[in-house]
Amino acid sequence: MNLTRRFFATLGFLSLAIASTLPAQDRPVISQQLDGFLTPTAAVFSPDGRYLFVVNHAQGEAGTLRSQSFISKLAVDADGKVSVNNMRFIRNLTAPIDLDFSPIRFGSIPKGAIFLAVGTPLVQDEAGRPMRDLARVMVGLIVLDPNTGREIKSIDLGPNSRIRLKDELSLLSPSSICFDDEGNLYIGESGVGGHMFERKQIGRPGIWRIEAAELENLLSERAPKKAELIRTTSLPTDMTFRAKEDMLYFVTNHTQGRPSGSVFRISSGQYQGISSMQTIVRDLSALTGIQIMPKGRVLLAGNSGELMFPKGKRDTRPLRFRPRHEFSSPGKIALMELKSGNIVIAVPEQSSEESGGRGQRISIVTLPSE
Protein backbone atom coordinates (compact mmCIF):
# COMPACT_ATOMS: atom_id res chain seq x y z
CA MET A 1 0.00 0.00 0.00
CA ASN A 2 1.52 3.37 -1.02
CA LEU A 3 1.63 6.40 1.28
CA THR A 4 -1.46 8.04 -0.27
CA ARG A 5 -3.58 4.95 0.19
CA ARG A 6 -2.29 4.54 3.73
CA PHE A 7 -3.19 8.16 4.49
CA PHE A 8 -6.81 7.81 3.31
CA ALA A 9 -7.20 4.45 5.03
CA THR A 10 -6.00 5.98 8.31
CA LEU A 11 -8.28 9.01 7.81
CA GLY A 12 -11.30 6.72 7.25
CA PHE A 13 -10.46 4.71 10.36
CA LEU A 14 -10.19 7.87 12.47
CA SER A 15 -13.56 9.15 11.13
CA LEU A 16 -15.25 5.92 12.11
CA ALA A 17 -13.60 5.97 15.51
CA ILE A 18 -14.73 9.56 16.16
CA ALA A 19 -18.29 8.79 15.02
CA SER A 20 -18.47 5.78 17.30
CA THR A 21 -17.51 7.90 20.31
CA LEU A 22 -20.15 10.60 19.73
CA PRO A 23 -22.63 10.66 22.61
CA ALA A 24 -26.09 9.27 21.93
CA GLN A 25 -27.68 12.65 22.64
CA ASP A 26 -26.10 14.03 19.42
CA ARG A 27 -28.54 11.88 17.42
CA PRO A 28 -32.33 11.64 17.44
CA VAL A 29 -33.38 8.89 19.81
CA ILE A 30 -36.63 7.21 20.83
CA SER A 31 -36.52 8.22 24.48
CA GLN A 32 -39.92 6.79 25.48
CA GLN A 33 -42.75 4.60 24.20
CA LEU A 34 -46.03 4.88 26.10
CA ASP A 35 -48.68 2.21 25.54
CA GLY A 36 -52.35 1.82 26.35
CA PHE A 37 -53.88 4.18 23.78
CA LEU A 38 -56.73 3.47 21.38
CA THR A 39 -55.92 4.48 17.79
CA PRO A 40 -54.12 7.68 18.83
CA THR A 41 -54.57 9.94 15.82
CA ALA A 42 -53.25 13.30 17.07
CA ALA A 43 -50.94 14.68 19.76
CA VAL A 44 -50.77 18.34 20.89
CA PHE A 45 -48.55 19.99 23.53
CA SER A 46 -50.25 22.58 25.75
CA PRO A 47 -49.06 26.19 25.27
CA ASP A 48 -47.08 26.10 28.53
CA GLY A 49 -45.45 22.79 27.59
CA ARG A 50 -46.54 21.07 30.80
CA TYR A 51 -48.97 18.64 29.20
CA LEU A 52 -49.40 16.52 26.11
CA PHE A 53 -52.96 15.87 24.96
CA VAL A 54 -53.69 12.83 22.79
CA VAL A 55 -56.80 12.24 20.66
CA ASN A 56 -57.92 8.59 20.77
CA HIS A 57 -60.31 7.82 17.90
CA ALA A 58 -62.25 4.58 18.41
CA GLN A 59 -62.97 2.90 15.07
CA GLY A 60 -65.18 -0.02 14.08
CA GLU A 61 -65.43 -1.85 10.78
CA ALA A 62 -68.22 0.43 9.53
CA GLY A 63 -67.05 3.77 10.94
CA THR A 64 -66.34 5.68 14.12
CA LEU A 65 -67.71 4.08 17.29
CA ARG A 66 -70.34 6.33 18.81
CA SER A 67 -69.38 7.81 22.23
CA GLN A 68 -66.33 5.52 22.56
CA SER A 69 -63.47 7.95 21.84
CA PHE A 70 -61.55 9.95 24.45
CA ILE A 71 -58.77 12.47 25.10
CA SER A 72 -55.71 11.49 27.17
CA LYS A 73 -53.76 14.00 29.24
CA LEU A 74 -50.06 13.34 29.89
CA ALA A 75 -47.68 15.32 32.09
CA VAL A 76 -44.37 16.63 30.67
CA ASP A 77 -41.45 17.55 32.95
CA ALA A 78 -38.71 20.13 32.31
CA ASP A 79 -36.48 17.50 30.67
CA GLY A 80 -39.21 16.40 28.26
CA LYS A 81 -40.06 13.16 30.04
CA VAL A 82 -43.72 12.25 29.57
CA SER A 83 -45.91 10.37 32.06
CA VAL A 84 -49.60 9.54 32.09
CA ASN A 85 -51.67 12.04 34.04
CA ASN A 86 -55.16 10.87 33.06
CA MET A 87 -55.56 8.32 30.27
CA ARG A 88 -59.29 9.07 29.87
CA PHE A 89 -59.30 12.75 30.73
CA ILE A 90 -62.30 13.52 28.46
CA ARG A 91 -64.65 10.61 27.69
CA ASN A 92 -67.70 9.70 25.65
CA LEU A 93 -66.63 11.48 22.46
CA THR A 94 -67.75 10.65 18.93
CA ALA A 95 -65.22 11.23 16.15
CA PRO A 96 -62.76 13.63 17.84
CA ILE A 97 -60.42 14.83 15.08
CA ASP A 98 -57.92 17.41 16.33
CA LEU A 99 -57.55 20.13 18.95
CA ASP A 100 -55.86 23.46 19.60
CA PHE A 101 -55.81 26.03 22.41
CA SER A 102 -57.37 29.50 22.18
CA PRO A 103 -54.57 32.10 22.10
CA ILE A 104 -56.90 34.89 23.30
CA ARG A 105 -60.09 35.27 25.33
CA PHE A 106 -63.39 35.01 23.45
CA GLY A 107 -66.11 36.59 25.62
CA SER A 108 -66.62 34.15 28.48
CA ILE A 109 -64.26 31.58 26.92
CA PRO A 110 -60.87 31.97 28.64
CA LYS A 111 -57.51 32.07 26.91
CA GLY A 112 -56.05 28.56 26.73
CA ALA A 113 -59.38 26.77 26.36
CA ILE A 114 -59.35 23.62 24.22
CA PHE A 115 -61.16 23.84 20.89
CA LEU A 116 -61.84 20.30 19.72
CA ALA A 117 -63.00 19.57 16.15
CA VAL A 118 -65.39 16.62 16.02
CA GLY A 119 -67.62 14.85 13.57
CA THR A 120 -67.87 12.57 10.56
CA PRO A 121 -70.79 11.11 8.61
CA LEU A 122 -69.21 7.66 8.95
CA VAL A 123 -70.46 6.56 12.38
CA GLN A 124 -71.16 2.99 13.47
CA ASP A 125 -74.13 2.25 15.73
CA GLU A 126 -74.20 -0.17 18.66
CA ALA A 127 -75.14 -3.04 16.32
CA GLY A 128 -72.05 -2.46 14.18
CA ARG A 129 -73.91 -0.93 11.24
CA PRO A 130 -73.36 2.47 9.59
CA MET A 131 -75.72 5.01 11.10
CA ARG A 132 -78.28 6.29 8.60
CA ASP A 133 -79.97 8.79 10.91
CA LEU A 134 -77.21 11.38 11.18
CA ALA A 135 -79.47 13.77 13.08
CA ARG A 136 -77.88 12.26 16.21
CA VAL A 137 -74.35 13.06 14.98
CA MET A 138 -72.77 16.45 15.65
CA VAL A 139 -70.19 17.93 13.32
CA GLY A 140 -68.53 21.00 14.78
CA LEU A 141 -66.59 22.29 17.79
CA ILE A 142 -66.51 21.42 21.48
CA VAL A 143 -64.85 23.93 23.82
CA LEU A 144 -63.31 22.35 26.92
CA ASP A 145 -61.55 23.38 30.12
CA PRO A 146 -57.94 22.08 29.85
CA ASN A 147 -57.66 21.72 33.64
CA THR A 148 -60.85 19.80 34.42
CA GLY A 149 -61.99 18.48 31.03
CA ARG A 150 -65.39 20.11 31.63
CA GLU A 151 -67.33 21.03 28.51
CA ILE A 152 -67.78 24.81 28.24
CA LYS A 153 -69.60 25.01 24.93
CA SER A 154 -70.71 22.79 22.07
CA ILE A 155 -71.29 24.29 18.61
CA ASP A 156 -72.92 22.23 15.87
CA LEU A 157 -71.72 23.45 12.47
CA GLY A 158 -72.88 20.47 10.42
CA PRO A 159 -75.81 20.12 8.01
CA ASN A 160 -78.13 19.34 10.95
CA SER A 161 -77.48 22.76 12.48
CA ARG A 162 -79.27 26.00 11.68
CA ILE A 163 -75.86 27.73 11.55
CA ARG A 164 -74.22 28.09 8.14
CA LEU A 165 -70.57 29.00 7.85
CA LYS A 166 -71.11 30.83 4.58
CA ASP A 167 -74.04 30.94 2.16
CA GLU A 168 -75.47 27.41 2.38
CA LEU A 169 -72.22 25.69 3.34
CA SER A 170 -71.85 23.64 6.51
CA LEU A 171 -68.99 21.67 8.00
CA LEU A 172 -69.17 18.07 6.74
CA SER A 173 -66.11 16.14 7.88
CA PRO A 174 -63.36 18.20 9.57
CA SER A 175 -59.78 16.98 9.31
CA SER A 176 -57.77 19.42 11.45
CA ILE A 177 -57.95 22.63 13.48
CA CYS A 178 -55.52 25.45 14.24
CA PHE A 179 -55.41 29.01 15.63
CA ASP A 180 -53.06 31.77 14.58
CA ASP A 181 -51.69 34.19 17.18
CA GLU A 182 -54.45 36.74 16.51
CA GLY A 183 -57.16 34.21 17.34
CA ASN A 184 -58.30 33.52 13.79
CA LEU A 185 -59.49 29.92 13.57
CA TYR A 186 -58.67 27.51 10.73
CA ILE A 187 -60.58 24.27 10.17
CA GLY A 188 -59.52 21.73 7.57
CA GLU A 189 -62.50 20.31 5.68
CA SER A 190 -62.23 17.03 3.80
CA GLY A 191 -65.63 17.54 2.17
CA VAL A 192 -66.40 13.82 2.50
CA GLY A 193 -69.89 12.41 3.01
CA GLY A 194 -72.13 15.35 2.19
CA HIS A 195 -74.54 13.05 0.36
CA MET A 196 -75.17 11.04 3.54
CA PHE A 197 -76.99 13.80 5.42
CA GLU A 198 -80.71 14.46 5.02
CA ARG A 199 -79.79 17.94 3.86
CA LYS A 200 -77.40 16.81 1.13
CA GLN A 201 -74.41 18.96 0.29
CA ILE A 202 -71.66 18.72 -2.29
CA GLY A 203 -68.32 18.34 -0.54
CA ARG A 204 -65.79 21.12 -1.01
CA PRO A 205 -62.38 20.18 0.41
CA GLY A 206 -60.42 23.15 1.69
CA ILE A 207 -59.57 25.21 4.75
CA TRP A 208 -62.05 27.45 6.52
CA ARG A 209 -60.76 30.68 8.09
CA ILE A 210 -63.05 32.27 10.69
CA GLU A 211 -61.90 35.68 11.88
CA ALA A 212 -61.33 36.09 15.61
CA ALA A 213 -63.90 38.88 15.80
CA GLU A 214 -66.52 36.47 14.43
CA LEU A 215 -65.82 33.61 16.82
CA GLU A 216 -67.91 35.28 19.50
CA ASN A 217 -70.85 35.19 17.06
CA LEU A 218 -70.16 31.51 16.53
CA LEU A 219 -69.93 30.86 20.26
CA SER A 220 -73.31 32.57 20.63
CA GLU A 221 -74.66 30.23 17.93
CA ARG A 222 -74.90 32.93 15.30
CA ALA A 223 -73.51 32.53 11.78
CA PRO A 224 -70.12 34.22 11.35
CA LYS A 225 -70.09 37.17 8.94
CA LYS A 226 -66.45 36.66 8.00
CA ALA A 227 -65.73 33.04 7.16
CA GLU A 228 -63.78 32.11 4.04
CA LEU A 229 -63.14 28.71 2.47
CA ILE A 230 -59.99 28.30 0.42
CA ARG A 231 -60.56 25.37 -1.90
CA THR A 232 -57.84 22.75 -2.24
CA THR A 233 -57.59 20.21 -5.03
CA SER A 234 -56.77 17.46 -2.52
CA LEU A 235 -57.91 16.60 1.00
CA PRO A 236 -56.30 18.69 3.79
CA THR A 237 -54.86 16.47 6.51
CA ASP A 238 -52.94 18.52 9.06
CA MET A 239 -51.87 22.12 9.64
CA THR A 240 -49.73 24.28 11.89
CA PHE A 241 -49.18 28.03 12.28
CA ARG A 242 -45.72 29.65 12.42
CA ALA A 243 -45.96 33.06 14.10
CA LYS A 244 -42.49 34.26 12.99
CA GLU A 245 -43.65 34.17 9.38
CA ASP A 246 -47.37 34.76 9.96
CA MET A 247 -47.84 31.65 7.83
CA LEU A 248 -50.23 28.72 8.00
CA TYR A 249 -48.53 25.51 6.79
CA PHE A 250 -50.73 22.60 5.75
CA VAL A 251 -50.64 19.14 4.21
CA THR A 252 -52.99 17.85 1.52
CA ASN A 253 -53.31 14.32 0.17
CA HIS A 254 -54.48 13.17 -3.24
CA THR A 255 -56.35 9.89 -2.76
CA GLN A 256 -57.26 8.86 -6.31
CA GLY A 257 -54.83 6.54 -8.02
CA ARG A 258 -51.50 6.46 -6.22
CA PRO A 259 -51.88 8.30 -2.88
CA SER A 260 -49.62 11.35 -2.79
CA GLY A 261 -49.08 14.25 -0.42
CA SER A 262 -48.11 17.90 -0.82
CA VAL A 263 -47.26 20.76 1.53
CA PHE A 264 -48.34 24.39 1.13
CA ARG A 265 -48.31 27.59 3.12
CA ILE A 266 -50.40 30.73 3.05
CA SER A 267 -50.10 34.07 4.81
CA SER A 268 -52.64 34.71 7.53
CA GLY A 269 -52.82 38.32 6.38
CA GLN A 270 -53.33 37.46 2.69
CA TYR A 271 -55.93 34.72 2.83
CA GLN A 272 -57.25 35.41 -0.65
CA GLY A 273 -57.76 32.10 -2.39
CA ILE A 274 -55.79 29.30 -3.98
CA SER A 275 -53.61 31.74 -5.95
CA SER A 276 -52.07 32.99 -2.69
CA MET A 277 -50.89 29.52 -1.65
CA GLN A 278 -47.15 28.76 -1.89
CA THR A 279 -45.95 25.23 -2.65
CA ILE A 280 -43.29 23.81 -0.32
CA VAL A 281 -43.08 20.27 -1.70
CA ARG A 282 -45.41 18.07 -3.74
CA ASP A 283 -46.01 14.56 -5.11
CA LEU A 284 -44.63 12.76 -2.06
CA SER A 285 -46.03 9.59 -0.55
CA ALA A 286 -49.12 10.09 1.63
CA LEU A 287 -48.52 12.51 4.54
CA THR A 288 -50.17 12.44 7.96
CA GLY A 289 -48.62 15.26 10.00
CA ILE A 290 -46.65 18.51 9.88
CA GLN A 291 -44.70 20.62 12.36
CA ILE A 292 -42.15 23.43 12.02
CA MET A 293 -38.75 23.14 13.68
CA PRO A 294 -37.54 26.12 15.79
CA LYS A 295 -35.37 27.43 12.93
CA GLY A 296 -38.07 27.05 10.33
CA ARG A 297 -37.45 23.64 8.80
CA VAL A 298 -40.60 21.75 7.89
CA LEU A 299 -40.93 18.33 9.54
CA LEU A 300 -43.38 15.84 8.04
CA ALA A 301 -44.80 12.51 9.12
CA GLY A 302 -45.47 10.05 6.33
CA ASN A 303 -47.85 7.13 6.19
CA SER A 304 -44.78 5.08 5.23
CA GLY A 305 -43.59 5.41 8.85
CA GLU A 306 -40.89 8.04 8.47
CA LEU A 307 -40.33 11.53 9.83
CA MET A 308 -38.78 13.62 7.05
CA PHE A 309 -37.69 17.06 5.86
CA PRO A 310 -38.50 18.42 2.37
CA LYS A 311 -35.54 18.39 0.00
CA GLY A 312 -36.35 20.48 -3.02
CA LYS A 313 -39.87 20.55 -4.47
CA ARG A 314 -40.32 16.81 -4.99
CA ASP A 315 -38.10 14.96 -2.55
CA THR A 316 -37.45 14.50 1.17
CA ARG A 317 -34.65 13.61 3.55
CA PRO A 318 -35.57 11.29 6.42
CA LEU A 319 -34.81 12.04 10.04
CA ARG A 320 -32.14 9.39 10.54
CA PHE A 321 -32.16 7.11 13.55
CA ARG A 322 -29.35 4.71 14.47
CA PRO A 323 -30.42 1.97 14.21
CA ARG A 324 -33.01 2.76 11.52
CA HIS A 325 -36.54 3.16 12.89
CA GLU A 326 -39.97 3.27 11.27
CA PHE A 327 -43.15 4.34 13.04
CA SER A 328 -46.36 2.35 12.74
CA SER A 329 -49.00 4.47 10.95
CA PRO A 330 -47.96 7.81 12.48
CA GLY A 331 -50.68 10.40 13.01
CA LYS A 332 -50.58 14.14 13.69
CA ILE A 333 -47.28 14.82 15.43
CA ALA A 334 -46.53 17.36 18.19
CA LEU A 335 -43.26 19.28 18.61
CA MET A 336 -41.85 21.36 21.46
CA GLU A 337 -38.50 23.03 22.18
CA LEU A 338 -37.24 22.68 25.76
CA LYS A 339 -35.40 25.38 27.70
CA SER A 340 -32.21 23.36 27.19
CA GLY A 341 -32.63 23.77 23.42
CA ASN A 342 -33.42 20.10 22.90
CA ILE A 343 -36.49 19.26 20.83
CA VAL A 344 -39.19 16.78 21.81
CA ILE A 345 -41.50 15.22 19.21
CA ALA A 346 -44.55 13.14 20.14
CA VAL A 347 -45.53 10.63 17.45
CA PRO A 348 -48.93 8.88 17.75
CA GLU A 349 -48.64 5.35 16.35
CA GLN A 350 -52.09 4.21 15.30
CA SER A 351 -51.48 0.54 14.59
CA SER A 352 -49.28 -2.25 15.82
CA GLU A 353 -48.16 -5.72 14.90
CA GLU A 354 -49.62 -6.83 18.22
CA SER A 355 -53.24 -7.98 18.32
CA GLY A 356 -56.21 -6.44 20.10
CA GLY A 357 -54.94 -2.89 19.80
CA ARG A 358 -52.08 -3.53 22.21
CA GLY A 359 -49.01 -1.55 21.27
CA GLN A 360 -50.91 1.45 19.88
CA ARG A 361 -48.76 4.05 21.51
CA ILE A 362 -47.10 7.45 21.70
CA SER A 363 -43.41 7.45 20.86
CA ILE A 364 -41.33 10.33 22.22
CA VAL A 365 -38.40 11.41 20.05
CA THR A 366 -35.64 13.59 21.52
CA LEU A 367 -33.37 15.63 19.26
CA PRO A 368 -30.40 17.83 20.12
CA SER A 369 -30.76 21.56 19.61
CA GLU A 370 -30.62 22.60 15.96
TrEMBL record:
Keywords carried by this UniProt record: Signal
Region (Disordered) location: 349-370
Top-level taxon of the source organism: Bacteria
Signal peptide: 1-24
Protein name: SMP-30/Gluconolactonase/LRE-like region domain-containing protein
